[in-house]
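Protocol step 4 of 6: structure prediction from sequence.
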Amino acid sequence: MCGGFTCSKNALIALNILYVMIGFLLIGVGVYARAASVVTNLPIVGGILACGVILICISMLGLAGAVKHHQVMLFFYMIILFMLFLIQFSIASSCLAVNAEQQQQFAEQGWKTVPKNLREQVQEKFLCCGFNATTTTSNNNNNVNIVNTNEPSCDIVNKQCCVDSQDPLCHCGPCGPLLEDKIDYAFKLCGGLGIFFSFTEVLAVFLARRYRNQHDPCYLPARAVFPHNYQY
């Protein structure tokens, strides 16, 4: 019946195979993003690859424990997975609870820490300059915005934005408002996926605990060589 030894074993194996597939998917996404120059920031790619490798290692531990019905492996599998659940659930809940103002603050802090070439790519793609009105830069002396020397030059994007304008003060708008919807979508997506996978981890912990305490019907208990009623 479902809920018995065989059902718990098969369910735990299937769940860990799913985790392995997700881990390889993360590694594939990271490798493709680096090879295709979709993401040029190495820490981001490294983080994606690290998540994939860690997930595969935990899944392999769970698979080995499920196949062998190994008590020690299943115990450490439950402990590691439960700790991962606590961390992931906390981060996912924080992502969903962040409001628009806090999202902009986090995004601006990230904008200041990313490499200059990555900011240039964002400015060229969205035809914007700087993150907000106080960080917009240009070498044009007639620009009314405050100049920040830490920002990449906006001369190229300003020429594209103002190609049909006769205004000498014409310049591109800041990138913050243009990225607002994408930032909100990213936070909601990360939070939703984190909540979903955190509950699958709770399911895996429950299955591992149940399976660990169940008796293997194929295992024959040890018997005495001589029966109890043997007359010496």
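Step 5 (inspection) to follow. The two ends are 45 Å apart (CA to CA).
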